[in-house]
Inverse folding.
């Protein structure tokens, strides 16, 4: 088993929001086995890495990604070869890892095959917590048919990112299908979306009985439901039915706050995607129906984050980028810094993300027993969050599960 010893490290502690200087970190295999201020005598085969002047921090966690959504035209992509989609997803995953994301949650499109390919080393990428296909009602946000199309290819391995289910029994079957394929969570559309062809952003989707059935099935499998929702009307009925994470939430108001607390739910804003879509729209890359809906949510994204931060919600880092927009994945740090201090944003992308994934102490932390997911930063992200956004110059080393994927030291 390979041993790596990092010496003279200033370790970033997200919980305390401070750097702990002059630490030695010992990695053996895929785990951190020891941390301290003493200098262990290295074995002959140990790899020694001196980090004087550098910051050592946990690998980043993005809790809202779609690496398998490889094209802006999701409807067209659904008719591509899954092998071709996987090859393009591999490039997206490699990019994420090179930005410092060692773990992602995939909330639509990714599946066991993609996660396994990364896990077994066929693609370099972050470890993937996947949910399989997103559950949507007919005409809901994951129903990508144009209004003039009737037929929907229901074969699971067509690379469509949604599964259409109506009524309690179809919802139960859809959840059980994802559970059968090893899903870590179930993703469902609780409201309309920006990029879907036939619904309104302010609609609510799925009946209460369907939502309760979905949560019941997920809970039976010891997983949870992640709900896409924009307005408090959609958020609140989701939370009351037991949905554990709310994605986007741009149009949220004060009425949702007590429910987040009561149900111990997580909030996953994804501000950067609206900015990226707006830019794509200016360049003529969006369908007409997207542009109009985008305006509804773009302006409110930062306000919702400010409300959530002020109210003490558990906020995870999410980006919701796809196709060629993934290179903006780190810009979310800058956008959030308009309303949140650096330590809070870093917690979102480390400890809170780990908590959301049920991996507290194993991910998002530099501590003994955790996976050796480590980044070496030239600079102090607590003092300047932008040091995380220029990986080509500031991110000197990337280790995931004890393996080094970049070393510019
Ligand atoms: Zn999404």
């Amino acid at each position: 088993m390979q041993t790596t010893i990092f010496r003279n490290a200033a370790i970033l502690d997200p919980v305390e929001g401070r750097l702990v200087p002059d630490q030695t970190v010992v990695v053996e295999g895929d785990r951190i086995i020891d941390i301290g201020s003493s200098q262990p005598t290295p074995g002959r085969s140990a790899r020694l890495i001196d980090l004087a002047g550098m910051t050592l921090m946990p690998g980043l966690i993005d809790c809202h990604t779609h690496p398998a959504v490889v094209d802006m035209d999701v409807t067209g992509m659904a008719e591509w070869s899954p092998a071709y989609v996987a090859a393009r997803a591999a490039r997206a995953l490699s990019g994420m890892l090179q930005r410092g994301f060692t773990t992602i949650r995939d909330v639509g499109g990714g599946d066991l095959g993609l996660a396994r390919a990364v896990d077994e080393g066929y693609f370099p990428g972050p470890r993937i917590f996947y949910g399989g296909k997103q559950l949507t009602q007919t005409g809901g946000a994951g129903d990508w048919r144009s209004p003039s199309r009737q037929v929907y290819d229901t074969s699971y391995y067509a690379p469509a990112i949604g599964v259409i289910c109506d009524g309690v029994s179809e919802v139960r079957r859809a959840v059980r299908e994802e559970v059968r394929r090893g899903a870590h969570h179930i993703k469902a559309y609780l409201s309309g979306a920006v990029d879907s062809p036939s619904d309104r952003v302010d609609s609510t989707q799925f009946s209460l009985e369907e939502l309760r059935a979905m949560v019941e099935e997920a809970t039976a499998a010891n997983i949870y439901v992640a709900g896409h929702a924009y307005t408090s009307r959609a958020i609140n009925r989701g939370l009351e039915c037991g949905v554990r994470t709310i994605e986007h939430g741009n149009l949220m108001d004060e009425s949702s706050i007590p429910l987040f607390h009561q149900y111990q739910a997580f909030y996953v804003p994804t501000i950067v995607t609206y900015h990226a879509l707006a830019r794509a729209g200016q360049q003529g890359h969006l369908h007409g129906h997207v542009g109009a809906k985008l305006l509804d949510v773009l302006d409110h994204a930062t306000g919702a984050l400010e409300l959530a931060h002020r109210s003490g919600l558990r906020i995870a880092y999410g980006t919701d980028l796809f196709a060629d927009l993934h290179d903006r994945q780190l810009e979310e740090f800058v956008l959030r810094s308009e309303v949140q201090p650096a330590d809070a944003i870093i917690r979102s992308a480390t400890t809170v993300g780990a908590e959301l994934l049920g991996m507290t102490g194993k991910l998002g932390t530099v501590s003994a027993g955790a996976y050796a997911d480590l980044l070496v930063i030239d600079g102090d992200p607590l003092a300047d969050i932008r040091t995380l956004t220029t990986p080509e110059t500031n991110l000197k080393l990337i280790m995931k599960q004890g393996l080094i994927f970049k070393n510019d030291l």
Remarks:
- Residues 82-98 form the longest helix (17 residues).
